Amino acid sequence: MATSPIAQTMRAKRLVPRLDACVHHTLPGSEILQQITVYGGFLTDLINGRLPMGTGHNDELLGIVEEFCTLIETGSPTAH
């Protein structure tokens, strides 16, 4: 069952600063930086209502972005 549109929006808004901080732990021009850009676009579109809200797909993608941020924040060797 998907979370509510409001919950998804709030979750996305909390992820934006985490994702922004990941940029500082990434080499310029790396594939990781490209992934950050894609995830940032998704979060922006979700927050601004350009994607269908309240879907399970959004919950899944938000979880992927959270996992990605955690990997970068914890210094995963694949992130550098």
Describe this structure in words.
The protein has 80 residues and is mostly helical. It has one domain (5-79). The protein has helices at 5-22, 31-47, 56-73. It is elongated, with a radius of gyration of 13 Å.
Query: How many DSSP helices?
Result: 3
Helical fraction equals: 55-70%
- The overall average pLDDT, rounded, is 91
Count of individual beta strands = 0
Span of the ends, CA to CA: 35 Å
* Main sheet record: none
Computed CA radius of gyration, to the nearest angstrom = 13 Å
The fraction of residues in strands falls at under 5%
Shape: elongated
Number of domains: 1
> How do the SSEs run, as a string of H and E?
HHH
Poorly predicted segments: none
What structural category arises from helix and sheet content?
mainly alpha
In short:
The protein has 80 residues and is mainly alpha-helical. Helix content is 66%, strand content 0%. Helix 1 packs antiparallel against helix 2 (31-47) and helix 1 packs parallel to helix 3 (56-73).
Short descriptors:
66% helix; 80 residues; 3 helices; mainly alpha; single chain
Tell me the layout of helices and strands:
Blueprint: H1 5-22, H2 31-47, H3 56-73
Helix pairs in contact: 1-2, 1-3
